[in-house]
Amino acid sequence: MLLEGKKLLITGVLTPQSIAFAAAKSVQEQGAEIVLTNFGRTVSLTQKTAKRLPTTPDVLEMDANSDEQIAAVCVELRRRWGRLDGGDGPQPVDRRGPAPDAICISRLYHSRPR
């Protein structure tokens, strides 16, 4: 399988009709292990929808505008996998550039073995 053994972070899965759901399903079918994120009241929708994927992934709370939540997800992914092979969604930025704690996920991704 094309993505066998890859570790991916997928954001924005709300319903089985969402593009993010189709992406999550596709990468799982290609062998990737995934974690989903969402935030606030939408976390429960994501957890419900996640059960419709081939393998039910964990759902972590992460608001892309919250440095603290991004840092917490980064810590969890580092603990869990030690690396991140890819993901979807925008890099959190403000007009000064990437938020200091927000770049941890990018660093985790770029520190993966090639």
As a percent range, the share of helical residues equals 25-40%
Assembly state here?
single chain
Give the amount of beta strand, in percent.
Answer: 15-25%
CATH class: Alpha Beta
- The CATH homologous superfamily is termed NAD(P)-binding Rossmann-like Domain
Q: What structural class do you assign from the helix and strand content?
A: alpha/beta
Task: Describe the 3D structure.
With 114 residues, the protein is α/β, with parallel strands linked by helices. The protein has one domain: Rossmann fold. Helix content is 37%, strand content 18%. The chain is built from four helices and six strands; from the N terminus they run βαβαβαβββα. The protein has a four-stranded parallel beta sheet with strand order 3-2-1-4, with helices on one face. It has a two-stranded antiparallel sheet with strand order 5-6. α1 links the parallel β1 and β2. The longest helix is centred in the middle third of the chain and has 14 residues. About 12% of the residues have low confidence.
